[in-house]
Amino acid sequence: MAKHRMTLYSKPFKSIVSGHKKVEIRLNDEKRRILQIGDLIEFEKLPERIEKVKVKVKDLIVYGTFKEMFAAIPFEDFDCAGWSMEEMLEGMYSIYTRAQEAEWGTLAIRIQKLDEQVEK
Prior knowledge:
The protein is α+β, with helices and mostly antiparallel strands.
């Protein structure tokens, strides 16, 4: 079991802390390709990186595009109930480019929050 560090902006960080977000979305880049089921991820909240929450990787699902991912996984699992496909894609393309998506593909990381308290 390996340990990894990743960063998140405030809203998705709080969604994980609350237990509402069950799937984290990333590019399937070199850093993510080393993830394995059972690994631990410590997410640090941006920008200050003081607050942290730990999760366990429950599943890893690779998709060619974000659209394929969003067609396969309920939006509720991303804590985005009520969003449209267009809103989901617009959100992702505000973080990642279509060129990055084409180069790396996408990765759905199914997670389980480990600790009840957020480290500060």
